[in-house]
Design a protein that fits this description.
By secondary structure, this protein is an alpha+beta fold. The chain is 43% helix and 17% strand. Strands 1, 2, 3, 4, 5, 6, 7 and 8 form an 8-stranded mixed β-sheet that branches.
Length: 342
């Protein structure tokens, strides 16, 4: 195996693109997920992945083999993410743009408005990689919307250290080498990052765990939600929500917390006879739906993507994303008929 890899590296250094692809392809999915955790944006993660591959191709001559190729690629990807976080002015919040719908007054305005969802279809082979001994989080938890959102509030260097140490399980000396710093600096940053993350996630720790993905329990909640939403049955929808249910809508800064105000928002969406069809998918390891507004012409227009966060047999969070994310999930911008397929 080592001889074969050495041969591939030698050929790639000589300009063999196929050899380079053979070296890097096994790591692409996990590097993309890593970049997504750090940046909170699927599109930004795609861009960083391409930058990482270009940098690796150009810098392969400098790969000395002291660390594994995977570790070397993580070093490049992490530093590209840090460059992006430092240089990019984060996308501005958007204003409410549905003229016939008047939303209720928000509970608060969100800090993280650039967050995007990650398609489950791309997680295969990305979150099942063996973790290092320092890992503290389950891979499925570490891709959830709540976790990724909490990460985005951390300072960039703390964010990088926490993901590399607690999510991926790299040793402190490996992380120090990746970030060109000292082990002491890594330990200090990790301590601050853990404290910051704990403050953001303290309320989540008390919740019931969600049912297993695609289990009968999850399927039942999903079916009840779809029926309630498609029939605009507010009472049935409210019965599915926890008392402290939370709703956000990046890149809109509006956030709603509490069953009554979330129900009020949903009622505003159904006002003036607006009705929707939902097409199931999955995002961030969670149930998700493309939402399609029924038009008088019979065409249903994609209005966004809903992602549900479950706690026990209830919905504890709903996140609505813009319709621009639908293609990433293989969902069309519109559906031709009222009758749902399948």
């Amino acid at each position: 195996m080592e001889l074969a890899r050495a041969d591939l590296i030698s050929r790639a250094r000589a300009g063999d693109g196929e050899a380079f692809r053979a070296l890097t392809e096994p790591h692409l999915r996990e590097l993309q997920v890593h970049s997504y955790r750090m940046l909170g944006s699927f599109q930004d993660a795609e861009d960083v992945l391409q930058d990482t591959l270009l940098a690796a191709w150009r810098g392969l001559a400098g790969f000395d083999g002291r660390a594994s190729l995977r570790t070397w690629l993580y070093r490049i990807a992490t530093n590209r993410c840090l460059d992006s976080l430092r240089s990019a002015s984060r996308r501005p919040a958007k204003k409410w743009d549905i003229p016939e719908v008047e939303p209720p007054e928000p509970t608060r305005l969100g800090e993280v408005v650039w967050l995007g969802p990650y398609p489950d279809a791309l997680l295969e082979g990305a979150i099942n990689h063996p973790l290092g001994p320092e890992a503290r989080y389950e891979q499925t938890e570490s891709i959830s919307l709540a976790f990724v959102t909490a990460l985005q509030v951390l300072p960039p260097r703390q964010l990088a250290v926490l993901v590399l140490r607690d999510v991926l399980g790299f040793h402190a000396n490996e992380v120090a080498d990746m970030l060109d710093t000292t082990v002491e600096s890594v330990k200090s940053a990790l301590k601050r990052a853990r404290a910051g993350l704990q403050r953001r996630r303290s309320t989540i720790a008390d919740r019931e765990p969600p049912p297993a993905a695609d289990s009968p329990a999850e399927d039942a909640i999903v079916a009840n939600f779809v029926h309630a939403w498609e029939t605009a049955d507010i009472d049935a929808l409210v019965a599915l929500l926890t008392d402290d249910v939370f709703m956000s809508m990046p890149p809109l800064p509006l956030e709603y917390e509490g069953r009554d105000v979330v129900a009020s928002f949903c009622a505003s969406m159904f006002g003036t006879g607006r009705r929707f069809d939902l097409v199931p998918t999955r995002a961030n390891g969670q149930p998700a739906f493309g939402a399609y507004l029924r038009a008088p012409t019979g065409i249903r227009h994609g209005t966004g993507l809903f992602v549900l966060t479950l706690a026990g047999d209830r919905i504890c969070a709903m996140t609505r994303f813009e319709n621009t994310v639908l293609p990433s999930f293989g969902l069309p911008r519109s559906l031709p008929h009222f009758r749902k397929m399948g």
